Amino acid sequence: MFAFLALTLKMGYIVQGRLEDHWTKMEEFRTPFYGQKIVLARYYHILRFLYFTDNNRNGVDRTDDRLWKIRDLFEINRTNFSKFCNPSENLAVNEAIVKFKGRIVFKQYIPKKRKRFGMKMFKMCDSTGYTYDMKVYLGKDKGRHST
């Protein structure tokens, strides 16, 4: 599982056209790190069955929270970001687009950004780029529930 998470995080730094391009045998585009850690079929298998919440869990109002499937994971990340580093005096609130090609109701289109389609987030960062807090923009009608 650690190898899966490490590869997924590393994919954010090494940009390829498709997911399977990280495991390519072509010398020009080859990144041997991926093939040495996990086979592509195994990576797809883990990705297919990876869930962060129980769909049948009682007490979760799916209509009220648009992030309900990843809410627990998102909150863990938010609290840990602020817990492990003390902010400097130089803080900035940044609007960021997280590239996302799937179907979600709150996907944004901003034509002037390099990544035009994705999830809009507001992040509080310091001068080193470290994120202390973040909030996902969930749309005009669900903005009061955004975190």
Overall structural domain count: 2
Distance between the terminal alpha carbons, to the nearest Å?
27 Å
Mean pLDDT over the residues: 82
Instruction: Tell me the fraction of residues in β-strands, as a range.
Output: 15-25%
Detail the poorly predicted runs: none
Helix share, percent = 25-40%
Question: Describe the biggest sheet?
Answer: 4 strands, antiparallel
Number of helices: 4
Number of strands: 4
**Any idea what the radius of gyration is?**
18 Å
The ordered H/E elements are HHHHEEEE
Give me the secondary-structure category. Answer: alpha+beta
Shape from CA axes?
globular
Protein described:
The chain is of the alpha+beta class and 147 residues long. It folds into 2 domains: 2-48, no CATH class; 71-145, no CATH class. The protein contains 4 helices and 4 strands, in the order ααααββββ. Strands 1, 2, 3 and 4 form a 4-stranded antiparallel sheet that branches. A hairpin with a 4-residue loop joins β3 (117-126) and β4 (131-136). The model has no long low-confidence stretch (mean pLDDT 82).
